[in-house]
Amino acid sequence: MGTVILCDFDDTVADQNVASLILEHFLSGDRDRSCQWSQIYQRFAKQDISLAAYQEQAFDLLQESVEEQAAYARNTASIRPGFDQLVHHCRSNGIELGIVSHGLDYYIRAVLDGAGLSE
Q1: Residue 111 · residue 22 · CB < 8 Å
Q2: Which sign, positive or negative, has the C-alpha torsion 24, 71, 12, 60?
Q3: What is the average pLDDT across 52-70?
């Protein structure tokens, strides 16, 4: 096996935490769901629940479809400058590049597609 580079997505490949962007956008206008999200986050911050449990519970609050969330991510989030150069370098040199994340694949794919990096 040759060289493999693994990159995290939120706050690494993407300039920002896309999960947080989605949650803030869709929950901030609804006082009840926003309050529930805040309570879930506080439990996570105190390490009462895992990151996986936090994300599952927080995203369960969303009433918007996965397609709506993905479209928002595609149109709002941005890829870190230079990442496309890393992709090109890896392709040109036979280096396998993978994205690992605790985030949700549908928004990761949407952001990468939006940046022309769907492969």
Answers
A1: no
A2: positive
A3: 95
Measured between alpha carbons, how far is 84 from 81 in angstroms, rounded to an integer? 7
pLDDT band at 29 (very low <50, low <70, confident <90, very high): confident
- The conformational region for residue 11 under phi > 0 = left, psi -120 to 50 = alpha, else beta, is left
Angle between helices 18-27 and 105-114 (to 10 degrees): 100
Query: Distance (Å, rounded) from C-alpha 91 to C-alpha 119?
Result: 10
Q: How many CA atoms lie within 13 A of 58 on its CB side?
A: 28
User: pTM of the predicted model, to two decimals?
Assistant: 0.89
**How far apart are the C-alpha atoms of 16 and 6, rounded to whole Å?**
18
Rg (CA), the chain: 16
Q: What are phi and psi of 79, to 5 degrees?
A: -85, 140
